[in-house]
Amino acid sequence: MTWLAAGQALPAVPPPDPAVAGAQAASELQLPGPALTLSPSTKGYVNLTEWLWITSSMWHPLTTSAQACNAGGCVTAVASATPSYVTWNTGDGTTVTCNGPGVPYNTALPATSQTTTCSHTYTTTSAGQPSSDGNPNDAAFPITATITWTVAWSGPNGSAGALPSLTTQGTTTLQVAQIESVNN
Questions:
Q1: Is there a contact between 79 and 67 (Cβ–Cβ < 8 Å)?
Q2: Following CA atoms 180, 119, 137, 125 in sequence, which dihedral angle do they give, to the nearest 10 degrees?
Q3: Nearest Cα residue to 22 out of 62, 76, 72
Q4: What is the rounded distance in angstroms from the CA atom of residue 41 to the CA atom of residue 55?
Q5: What is the pLDDT of residue 180?
Q6: pLDDT on residue 183
Q7: The model's pTM
Q8: Of residues 4, 42, 31, the one with CA closest to residue 170
Q9: How confident is the model over 8-36, as pLDDT tens digits?
Q10: What HEC string does 83-139 produce?
């Protein structure tokens, strides 16, 4: 309860803090999960580099806005999420961090004319791993790619701030076999 002297006006209520609207906007962001692509894609092989990438068309900032109101007025802020990096859990105990979506392997080009910084080389087969149908011949490494998004908000009069990062995930599996050669 607030006591006022006769003729005294109620103190003005300030509008909401723009950070409140920014946090609200961030909670409404619809961030896509990554679609994982590997090459070789159907089956990997021990000691053969496996290229890792996600769809590059999703590698851009996403934004949304929200409004917060109270007795002092309304304020609108925009939240933006920008993909920062992808962390791949390759299923064999290895984690690979890539600073971008990765580079698609182009089967039309010779392997010697292509490079990637987002890859993994398996040193063991996937034998003994779980299989989706219970058949031990279908054993595969579970692979998870997690995108970490940097989140920030901006509001009126140049107000802005950082918010906690967000993550989205995608999963797939990969059978990894051993190739042996015999010299005659």
A1: no
A2: 50
A3: 76
A4: 14
A5: 76
A6: 62
A7: 0.86
A8: 31
A9: 766 688 889 999 999 999 999 999 999 99
A10: EEEEEEECCCCCEEEECCCCCCCCCCCCHHHCCCCCEEECCCCCCCCCCCCCCHHHC
